[in-house]
Write a structure and sequence with these properties.
OB fold (Dihydrolipoamide Acetyltransferase, E2P), alpha+beta
Amino acid sequence: MKMPRDCSPNRAALIAAAVIVFVLAGCSKSKSNPGNSAADSGSATLFSIPPDQMAHLQVLTAQPTTLTRTLRLTGSVAYDSFRTTPVITQVSGPITRIAVVPGEKVRRGQPLLYVASPDYSQLRSAYLKAKDADALAQKSYARAKDLYQHHALAEQNLEQAESAEVQANGDLESAAAALKVVGVADPDSLLKASPSFEAPVRAPIDGEVVEQNVSAGQLLQTGATQCFTISDTSKVWVLVNIYQKDLPYVHVGDTVAIQTDTYPEIFHGRISYVAPALDSNTRTLQARIETPNPGDKLKKDMYVTATVNAGVVRNAIAVPDAAVLRDSENQPFVYVETSGGRFGRRSVTVGESQQGKTQITSGLKPGDRFIADGGLFVQFENSLQR
């Protein structure tokens, strides 16, 4: 069988070569092989940038660096429990008057309110009687000693006078202690004061009245009714929650910078306690930060952000903030240069941003060249061409 003249071997080879050239020309367009370039760029779309436009872009090479590891923790302000105490009355009876209001600074021993108390009246009367009995017993003992020295009194009578003096002194000390418990710091002051049935409830510590739980006329029960809460707000706690993955980087003694939307300044504190167990609901660990509170600006339950310097991250990849862009689904990406001077999107995972640079935890490796500045204009131009 003869081969047709137009299908000679030389002509068939030329046709095959033309088909290969056509296919290669089609592959040089923006679509790349999903199994090759797409895997490197994070997107199947590659493009070239004209040389005159490249002059307006900054292309850098990713290099490993050392970054400060910064943890941003959310939390709220709480009173320092070691500087906060409830005020509980030790006498019963109705409140006759209240001497302070919430927000007022008080000193230790300052009267906060007054109670018309039968208990106080009995204690006051018992002290006055014990004081008089003690004075009489001291005089009797002194007289007995004098008589005994002049051989005018038997030794047995002297011992009886001495015993009576000791008992009277013990009764006096007991009555004085009972008055101090109910808020009378100097029981002897009752000797000069006019008779009164009002018992003062005094501040146990210096601080600010942060809560008032009673009102005038209310009947108080001994040892049961909480009247006020006083706290020394010159120092407060900030309670923050630490995620499980960040636990290795948080330690007692770490310094913390505390910020709130209320004030522009930064408050500085230190981690004083880390809980031994995670919260079963939030799967976070609570840490306590102690911080000075100048001007009492930090208020209870105020929302704050605490920044902890938790060591360093070695061999990290960081790019300028302008290099990280967002797609229509708000996913981060960077423009990476591939072989042949072409560029394409590559999806990345970002970490912390500090001092104008953003950490890339995945998606870039050392040696990759990327558009550091000007990528936003490239993204805008590509969107217009679609």
